[in-house]
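We were asked to recover a plausible sequence for a given structure. The inputs and outputs are reproduced exactly as logged, with field labels preserved.

PROBLEM: sequence recovery
POSITIONS: 441
GIVEN STRUCTURE:
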């Protein structure tokens, strides 16, 4: 038909070529022998895989500590067991191809079968072995289609067409093949960068001899170095001239001067915090606005505070530099708190301090190792209804709601007063009744 699209004619042409090849294979004795070798290679691979899989599983499965480096290597190798059967079939087919080419002088059928087994190995790798969501997406939409095109012998043709298809973008232009390569290589390189960064961060955080602030600074420096190197490697592989990025650098500088100066300020403030150690992960801080919590994470832009009721507060790093912040230090430092109470005027107020100090010192969380940290009960005032005291006590950590130190101390005070028959006063009011001439309202 005259009005038939060009793509339909091309597809029909390929179908005719495929039919001619298939017809030639069906009528050729050499082709039938190659089909037989493919079946033999497949059955041999199935049999060998059935025998090898229990042995390899037993050898590669660690018996002891799975966190040992050698155990981790064995577990990593164990992941690739699904590839054993298709790779064995591919290897047996490759040996069969050498035999058929030496006998018949041709091996097109068995070469096609070898590509099919390779495709099965690639599909098993993408579907069963890759667990990362991003890499699994690349395997599903990039790796498997490429393997399928290679199997049917169209990979070079499709690659050429993609390379010839140019996409204009202003004063720039690039081919679809370049875009696909850039996306795949960029994704893989930055995925490796993320994985390397996670491993490096874990290794640094295990160095307990380093100060927390130093560890956080080392983690941030490693992150910048890893992703910076990943960017340079990607540009070098793709052949992008880095000098052409000077214009982009100028644009970023202008952006920092206008719209991104707040982000830049927070970034520099975060570096200052990590260098000076004024606030770091694990510190309990109280902000100028009244919010308080434990710093659980510090990023390049902000610090994350977790309150005692589990809420997270995102605080820009700049606030720690430009505003007043009370730092109660990390969880291992000693802090002093007060527990106020009152006793009746009928009580022996001289005996009260000794009774309360001894009772509170029995609590396991109250510090009493030094004279400075001993519980101290002080007379504060003579109130309207009773004598006001306050007990000062020291504990390791923060009384932030999770560590309810003060309520437990108050309960201990109440038990001590009750055990010694010391009355806790309540308000008294004296009502004077005037004479008969008084009027009530």
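RECOVERED SEQUENCE:
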């Amino acid at each position: 038909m005259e009005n038939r699209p060009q793509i339909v004619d091309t597809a029909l042409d390929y179908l005719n070529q495929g039919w001619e090849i298939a017809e030639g294979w069906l009528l050729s004795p050499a082709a039938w022998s190659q089909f037989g070798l493919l079946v033999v290679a497949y059955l041999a691979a199935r049999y060998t895989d059935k025998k090898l899989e229990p042995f390899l599983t037993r050898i590669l499965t660690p018996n002891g500590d799975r966190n040992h480096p050698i155990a981790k290597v064995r577990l990593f190798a164990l992941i690739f067991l699904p590839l054993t059967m298709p790779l064995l079939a591919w290897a047996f087919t490759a040996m069969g191809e050498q035999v058929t080419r030496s006998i018949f002088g041709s091996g097109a059928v068995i070469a096609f079968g070898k590509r099919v087994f390779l495709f099965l190995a690639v599909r098993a790798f993408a579907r069963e072995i890759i667990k990362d969501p991003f890499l699994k997406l690349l395997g599903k939409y990039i790796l498997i289609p490429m393997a399928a095109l290679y199997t049917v012998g169209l990979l070079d043709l499709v690659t050429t067409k993609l390379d010839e298809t140019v996409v204009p973008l202003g004063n720039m232009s690039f081919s679809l093949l370049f875009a696909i390569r850039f996306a795949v290589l960029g994704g893989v390189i930055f995925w490796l960068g993320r994985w390397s960064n996670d491993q490096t961060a874990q290794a640094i955080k295990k160095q307990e001899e380093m100060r927390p602030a130093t560890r956080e600074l080392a983690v941030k420096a490693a992150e910048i170095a890893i992703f910076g190197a990943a960017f340079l490697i990607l540009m070098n592989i793709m052949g992008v001239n880095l000098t052409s990025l000077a214009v982009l650098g100028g644009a970023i500088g202008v952006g920092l001067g206008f719209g991104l100066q707040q982000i830049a300020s927070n970034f520099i403030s975060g570096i200052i915090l990590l260098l000076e150690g004024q606030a770091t992960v694990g510190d309990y801080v109280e902000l100028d606005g009244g919010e308080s919590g434990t710093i659980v994470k510090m990023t390049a832009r902000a610090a994350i505070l977790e309150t005692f009721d589990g809420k997270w507060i995102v605080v820009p790093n700049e606030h720690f530099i430009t505003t007043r912040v009370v730092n109660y230090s990390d969880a291992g430092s000693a802090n002093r708190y007060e527990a106020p109470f009152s006793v009746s005027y009928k009580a022996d107020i001289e005996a009260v301090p000794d009774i309360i100090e001894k009772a509170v010192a029995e609590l396991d969380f109250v510090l009493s190792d030094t004279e400075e940290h001993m519980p101290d009960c002080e007379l504060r005032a003579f109130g309207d209804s009773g004598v006001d005291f306050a007990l000062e006590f020291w504990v390791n950590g923060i009384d932030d709601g999770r560590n309810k130190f003060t309520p437990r101390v108050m309960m201990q005070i109440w038990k001590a007063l009750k055990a010694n028959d010391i009355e806790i006063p309540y308000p008294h009011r004296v009502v004077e009744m005037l004479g008969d001439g008084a009027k009530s309202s």
